[in-house]
Structures are given as structure tokens and as C-alpha cells.
Amino acid sequence: HVFFSSLFPHFSLGMGSPTRVHLPALRLFSPHPLYMMKLGRVRNIVVVAGAGISTASGIPDFRTPGTGLYANLAKYDIPYPVAILNINYFSDNPHPFFSLAKELYPGHHRPNYVHYFIRMLHQKGLLLRMYTQNIDGLEKLCGIPDDKLVEAHGSFATAACHLCYTPYPAEEAKQAIMNGNVPICTFCAGAVKPNVVVFGEDLPEKYFQHAEDFPKADLLMIMGKSLTSCLILKVFLLCGRSSPSPAW
Ligand SMILES: [Zn+2]
């Protein structure tokens, strides 16, 4: 089994300019993962991806000073920064979230070389699963199939009432939000929300359906995210894998 991790920020695929790919960082680990792949000993790759893989597509991440989402929340008229992503605050006033959602809805951005690299892993039959924390939909757009993808923070592809979870047509919800209206649940009259996960909500069911992925993986690629905030990895560490030990 080959195991490499802690590549962020040294292995910064997707961070900064499209030419900034630090493959030498891979050599921190021995034997070299690419060598192991060449030998055919790597067959099940799990990719864990964060906001950094989409910055090369022009999508701001959350925490980058100056350009990150958190640094630009003043215009949304909210009492405290994370209110915009809090389900209780959404319940009281969905408009700030919808203002943000207008900007985040997929359709304005294209996948970049990182997304296509992961699709290539799939085409070579090496991708066991991709876990992404991104809600930009670029993984699907570049052709990574649904059964290989876990959108851990949900997506804009579906919508539902935030109170009773009654599904609502995603396209109608989008049109309402784009027009500055609040889509209303036909069952309980609660506000309908695109199924992106905000603070205070459970992760999507699909996130829990592949518990065997991490024990089965012989290569874990972590891209575009800080390990300090990686819930996916915490779950992985809890899943009881005994060998080998993680390298971070
Ligand atoms: Zn409802």
C-alpha cells in the first residue's frame, strides 16, 4: 500500500496560477506513488478535494485573505460573518444566503486541469471515489460520473424545503432565487433551499454510504484543502484502518 498525504500546501494543484504544480513534493514519500502506479500496485485511489482545486477556475475559496468568501461578506448585510451559512439564520432571513447563492450557482465557470486530472484517473479505472467539499459542480461538469463522486457539502443540482425536506424542482428554485424571490415549500410553506449544506445541517446521506472506501484505498490524494479543517479525513481516521499509518 502506498500512502501519501499532507500535500497541501506543497502540492498545490489548483492553487494560484494554472502553471503552479509542485510535483516534486510527491517525492517526499518513498516509494514514489507514480512509480507504484506504473507497477500497477495502485488500483484504488480516493481523492479528497477542497476549494483550492477550483481557484484556477476563478472561484474564490472561503478563507483566502482579501479574495476569499469570508473576507467579502460585508455587502450581504448580516449580523455576523457565518450567519450567511447558518441554517437557523436562514430560517429567519433567507435573503442573504440567496444573494450569495446567486453568485455561487454553477454555470459561470469551467473545470480546470485538476478536475480533468481526476477524470483521467477515472478513465484509467483507478478512481475508487472522489470526495469533494466544493459546491461548484465542476466535477460533474468535467465528466466524473455520479457513482464515483460524493459531493460532501451537497450541490445546487437539487433543492428542498429546509424544514420538512420536501423536494422542490431545482430549476424553479433557481429561477425564484435569481429573481430575488424566496421559493416556498408546497407542503409547509417553509423556505426552499438548494441542497448545499450549511452550518447546522447534516451531511448528505451519500456521504455515509461508502464507509469502506478509505480502508480499501491504496492511495489517498488530498488536493486544495487544509488538513486542519478536513472533516472527511477525521471520519477516515475513525474508520479503524490499522495499517499503514497516515503520514501526517
Ligand atoms: Zn416544507
UniProtKB/TrEMBL annotation:
GO molecular function terms attached to this record: histone deacetylase activity, NAD-dependent; metal ion binding; NAD+ binding
Alphabetized UniProt keyword annotations: Metal-binding, NAD, Transferase, Zinc
Residues where Zn(2+) binds: C161, C164, C185, C188
Pfam families named among the record's database cross-references: SIR2
Sequence ranges assigned to domain Deacetylase sirtuin-type in this UniProt record: 24-248
Superkingdom, natural source: Eukaryota
Listed InterPro entries: DHS-like_NAD/FAD-binding_dom, NAD-dep_sirtuin_deacylases, Sirtuin, Sirtuin_cat_small_dom_sf, Ssirtuin_cat_dom
Residues annotated as catalytic: H153
GO cellular component, one term: nucleus
Full protein name: NAD-dependent protein deacetylase sirtuin-3, mitochondrial-like
Organism: Sinocyclocheilus anshuiensis
Lineage of source species: Eukaryota, Metazoa, Chordata, Craniata, Vertebrata
Gene name of the encoded protein: LOC107672161
